[in-house]
Design a protein that fits this description.
Length: 511
C-alpha cells in the first residue's frame, strides 16, 4: 500500500499513533526496521530510537546507513526527510546498566514518550547466561524503570516469544510464573565474582527450558507482569518470525535466523539433510502479521489497561506443516536458482535423530572435505568444512522446536482482530486466516534470494543455466556412484559363492 493511499484513510488504530512519540528498542533489528516503516506511515510525531555505537560507528552513522541500505524503507529514496525528521537517536545500550543513556537524553525520553515498544533482545539461542540475562531481563527491567517516570505514557509493549513458555505443550494467553525470581537472578549475575562457575551450572538452572533465550524471555515477561499496576502493558508472543507476507513489500527479510536459514541453506545446496518431523505444525508467522498485530494489540491494551493483555501471535488458526513447507520449497526447484550456491538443492528430512546424524556424514562432511580439497588445489582458503560446523550448530539449536509440537491459544488475539474496523483491517492486516501458505512459500524463497543472498531477480535466468549444468553433472555422478555400487555388489556376491549369478539374473527377466 502506498503512502498516499495510507494517508488518505483515517482509522482508530492509525489515529492512536498519529502525533505520538514512540520509544523503540531494537530499531536496527529485523522487527525494529518494520516498526519504523509502519510507525512513520502512521504519522507519529517522533520515534526515539535506542541505538549504540558498534565497531567504531556512531549510532547516527548506523541509522543513516540503515536507511540507505534496506529496501523495507520504501519511501526513503524519494522522501528522506520523511524519516530523518521523525527519527531521533537516543544513544544507549539495552545490555548496560540504566541502558547507558545520558542524563539529557533521559530527560527528553521521560518528558516526551507516549508509547514504549520494546523489541530489542539477544536472539542467539546459545548465548551465555550472563549476556542473555543482561540484555533480555535486566534490560527490560531498566526500561520499565524509565517508563514508570514517563508522565504521558499510554502503553508499554513487550515483544516476547511464543517459545518463552515452550516447556508447556499448550500455551495460554496469560502470565506464567517462572521457577526463578528474575530480579534475584539479575543480582546474582551482577554480584557473582566467579561467573565461569555460574556459567558451568547455567544448563541446570535453565532446565526444563531448552536454551537461555527462551528461558530469559520467560523471566522478562515476569518482570513486565510485576509492573501491571503501574502502567498499561501489553505482551505480544510471536512464534518463529519469517519474511513479510505483503506489507510493506513482499518477501522481505534481513537475517538467516530460524526458518530463513533452513530455506537459504537448502536453496544453496548447503543444507541437504535436516532432523525434523514433517507432519508437525510449522510454528512460523510472517513478520508483517507480527508488526501489525503488535500495533493493534498495543492500541487495544491502551484502551483496556485492566486486562491481562497477553497476546499469542501465532498461526494456530491457519497452520501448515513442515512437510507442506518442504514441498512448497521443492516446487521452486528449477524455477528459482542462486548463483552463489554450493551445489543444486537436495533437501532431505528425517524424523530420526541418529539417521540424520549418520546421513550428515555423506550429505555434508564428505562433500565438504572434497570441496575444501578442490579449493586447496586451486590455491584458495578452504572454508566449506567450517561452514558445515556452523550449519550443524544451527541445526542443533532448531532441533527442539522442529521436533516438538505446541498449541498456542489465540482467543484474545482473535477477539482483537475481529473487533477491528474494516478500514483498520485494510491498513493493519494481521488476520492469520488470510495467509495463503503456498503463495507465502514461493515469495519467501524469492525474498531470501533477493534480500538475503543479494541476487537481483533479473539474474535468475543466469543462475538457472548454472543450475542446469550442475544438475547434469549431479546425475552423471549419481549414475557413476550407483554403477560402482552394483559392480561391487556383484563382486561380493560372486565372492560369496552365489553360482552363475548372471545366468540367474537373465532367467528372472523371462520369468
Amino acid at each position: 500500500m502506498s503512502l498516499e493511499e495510507f494517508n488518505a484513510n483515517k482509522s482508530p488504530v492509525k489515529d492512536f499513533y498519529h502525533g505520538k512519540t514512540v520509544l523503540l528498542t531494537g530499531g536496527s533489528g529485523f522487527l525494529g526496521k518494520l516498526f519504523i516503516e509502519k510507525l512513520i506511515k502512521c504519522g507519529v510525531r517522533e520515534i526515539l530510537l535506542l541505538l549504540r555505537s558498534k565497531k567504531g560507528v556512531s549510532p547516527e552513522e548506523r541509522l543513516h546507513a540503515l536507511l540507505k541500505k534496506e529496501a523495507v524503507f520504501v519511501n526513503y529514496q524519494q522522501q528522506p526527510e520523511l524519516y530523518l525528521d521523525r527519527l531521533k537517536v537516543i544513544e544507549g545500550d539495552i545490555s548496560r546498566p540504566g541502558l547507558a543513556i545520558s542524563n539529557d537524553d533521559l530527560d527528553y525520553v521521560i518528558k516526551h514518550t507516549n508509547i514504549v515498544l520494546h523489541s530489542a533482545a539477544d536472539v542467539r539461542f546459545d548465548e551465555s547466561m550472563k549476556e542473555s540475562v543482561e540484555t533480555n531481563v535486566r534490560g527490560t527491567d531498566h526500561l520499565l524503570n524509565i517508563a514508570e517516570k514517563c508522565a504521558n505514557l499510554e502503553v508499554f509493549v513487550y515483544v516476547s516469544s511464543a517459545f518463552s513458555q515452550c516447556i508447556k505443550e499448550s500455551v495460554e494467553e496469560k502470565f506464567y510464573t517462572p521457577n526463578i525470581d528474575p530480579l534475584e537472578l539479575i543480582k546474582m549475575m551482577e554480584n557473582e565474582p566467579r561467573l565461569d562457575e555460574l556459567e558451568a551450572v547455567s544448563k541446570k538452572m535453565v532446565e526444563p527450558w531448552p536454551n537461555t533465550y527462551s528461558f530469559t524471555k520467560a523471566l522478562a515477561e515476569e518482570v513486565v507482569r510485576r509492573r501491571r499496576d503501574k502502567m498499561p502493558i501489553a505482551i505480544v508472543r510471536p512464534s518463529i518470525v519469517t519474511s513479510t507476507y505483503a506489507d510493506p513489500i513482499v518477501g522481505w527479510t534481513d537475517n538467516f535466523y530460524g526458518f530463513n536459514g533452513v530455506v537459504s541453506g537448502a536453496g544453496t545446496g548447503v543444507l541437504r539433510i535436516f532432523h525434523i518431523r514433517d507432519e508437525y505444525k510449522a510454528d512460523i508467522i510472517p513478520a508483517d502479521i507480527v508488526i501489525n498485530g503488535t500495533l493493534v494489540a498495543a492500541h487495544y491494551a491502551a484502551k483496556h489497561p485492566a486486562g491481562e493483555n497477553v497476546f499469542n501471535c501465532t498461526m494456530d488458526e491457519n497452520h501448515t506443516t513442515w512437510g507442506d513447507i518442504r514441498n512448497d520449497c521443492l516446487s521452486q526447484k528449477g524455477v528459482v536458482a542462486v548463483k552463489k550456491s554450493l551445489w543444486i538443492p537436495t533437501y532431505n528430512t528425517t524424523r530420526y535423530y541418529y539417521v540424520a546424524s549418520f546421513l550428515q556424514v555423506f550429505y555434508h562432511l564428505i562433500p565438504a572435505v572434497f570441496f575444501d580439497l578442490v579449493m586447496r588445489c586451486r590455491g584458495e582458503k578452504p572454508q566449506i568444512l567450517r561452514l558445515y560446523r556452523k550449519v550443524h550448530r544451527f541445526s542443533d539449536v532448531l532441533r527442539f522446536f522442529t521436533n516438538h509440537q505446541f498449541q498456542f491459544a489465540t482467543k484474545r488475539m482473535r477477539q482483537v482482530v475481529d473487533g477491528m474496523e474494516i478500514v483498520d483491517r485494510h491498513l493493519f492486516p494481521c488476520d492469520m486466516k488470510s495467509v495463503v501458505w503456498s503463495k507465502f512459500g514461493v515469495n519467501h524463497i524469492r525474498g531470501c534470494r533477493v534480500y538475503l543472498l543479494g541476487e537481483p531477480w533479473d539474474t535468475n535466468e543466469e543462475a538457472l543455466q548454472i543450475y542446469r549444468r550442475r544438475r547434469l553433472i549431479h546425475w552423471c555422478m549419481l549414475g557413476l556412484i550407483y554403477s560402482m555400487y552394483v559392480v561391487v555388489g556383484l563382486r561380493l556376491l560372486e565372492a560369496a559363492g552365489v553360482p552363475d549369478l548372471r545366468s540367474f539374473l537373465g532367467c528372472t527377466q523371462f520369468a
